[in-house]
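Tokens for chain A. Residues wanted.
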């Protein structure tokens, strides 16, 4: 992080927290957020109250299993954050994890405790007061973004604490009541503010989170936690899976994450047009072959690769990249080994979950198929 970026983060963070405290000086502000993934799937709810010197709230998340997080944020007389206490655990669990963030002049000390296990470390901040980054603790985003919204700043950089480092988050004013914010590898989200200056809506669909978050008068987090804790736990939003086949003398494996449509547009939506897509979810999709292949007429030597793809309204290409093991937003085009056209066709029945198949079609031949929604793309391969 450059010294100029540190100066920007330090100035803006102070502005944010003074503004947030001033906004609550007259009377407490109580509200809630509901986060949706698609039109029908609630993934998190949160309720909070803000006073002049503190903020307290509870968040309940659904995936991969029900989780309750409660937090208290304390502000110093000048408005800057001084301490954050966060607890997390399953609904009704006797054992929870507690995390304390204690801010000093030039650092933040993070202390985590669960049963007898504890961890403590300090992060140098050069005078900044970065809030911890949680994509689904929405009141924290409210604190940061409302402060920028109330200022005359058109663009700035906020510091958010991610693990043991402060990550710069770009904030751009895009309208009288709108801001875009985000960082490389996560994407840019869109915030909308109400006439009272408070955060009203977060559109995280362009990011890896994919949530749509709305401010509502009140939700019952206690009842939600009890209900979600009693139902069968849904597991990961995009579980990892493997497509594999023995074709001739080759063992071909594709390891990938499987997102679900959840009522959203797939081809041209979740699979964007004219942009490289991770071809799955979470960590980059991997192709592993122990024999040389020829995929769509392109020789692919034995080895491990990452797979990406790019679609238009009329076609779809498979991208074989020489890197592997990276996160699914870290595509390096300079490492692309080949771009291979897929044959695109329509499915007779929509497919809810993204599916890759490797299918033998002959003694030394097979196909790779990517299918989701009402569309599939297929390419033939042979074993050399």
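Reply:
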């Amino acid at each position: 992080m450059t010294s100029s970026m540190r100066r920007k983060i330090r100035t803006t963070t102070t502005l944010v927290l003074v503004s947030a405290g001033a906004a609550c000086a007259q009377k407490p502000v109580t509200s809630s957020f509901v986060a949706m993934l698609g039109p029908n799937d609630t993934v998190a709810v949160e309720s909070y109250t803000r006073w002049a010197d503190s903020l307290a709230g509870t968040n309940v998340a659904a995936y991969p299993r029900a989780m309750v997080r409660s937090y208290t944020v304390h502000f110093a007389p000048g408005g800057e954050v001084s301490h954050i206490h966060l607890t997390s655990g399953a609904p009704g669990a006797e054992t929870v994890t507690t995390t304390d963030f204690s801010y000093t002049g030039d650092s933040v000390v993070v202390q985590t405790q669960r049963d007898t296990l504890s961890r403590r470390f300090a992060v140098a901040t050069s005078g900044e007061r970065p809030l911890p980054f949680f994509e689904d603790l929405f009141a924290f985003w409210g604190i940061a973004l409302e402060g920028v919204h109330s200022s005359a700043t058109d663009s700035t950089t906020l510091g958010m604490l991610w693990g043991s480092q402060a990550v710069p988050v770009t904030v751009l004013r895009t309208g009288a009541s709108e801001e875009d914010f985000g960082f490389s590898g996560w994407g840019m989200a869109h915030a909308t503010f109400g006439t009272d200056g408070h955060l009203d809506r977060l559109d995280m669909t362009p990011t890896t989170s994919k949530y749509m978050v709305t401010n509502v008068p009140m939700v019952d987090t206690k009842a939600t936690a009890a209900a979600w804790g009693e139902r069968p736990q849904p597991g990961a939003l995009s579980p990892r899976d493997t497509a594999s086949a023995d074709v001739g003398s080759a063992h071909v494996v594709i390891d990938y994450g499987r997102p679900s449509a959840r009522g959203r547009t797939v081809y041209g939506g979740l699979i964007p047009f004219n942009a490289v897509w991770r071809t799955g979810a979470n960590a980059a999709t991997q192709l592993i072959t122990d024999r040389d292949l020829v995929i769509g007429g392109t020789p692919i030597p034995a080895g491990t690769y990452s797979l990406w793809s790019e679609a238009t309204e009329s076609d779809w290409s498979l991208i074989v990249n020489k890197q592997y093991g990276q996160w699914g937003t870290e595509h390096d085009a300079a490492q692309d080994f080949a771009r291979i056209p897929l044959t695109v066709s329509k499915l007779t029945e929509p497919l809810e979950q993204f599916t890759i198949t490797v299918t033998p079609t002959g003694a030394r031949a097979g196909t790779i198929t990517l299918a989701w929604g009402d569309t599939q793309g297929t390419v033939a391969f042979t074993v050399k």
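Confidence is low (pLDDT under 50) at residues 1-25. The first strand starts at residue 29 and ends at 37.
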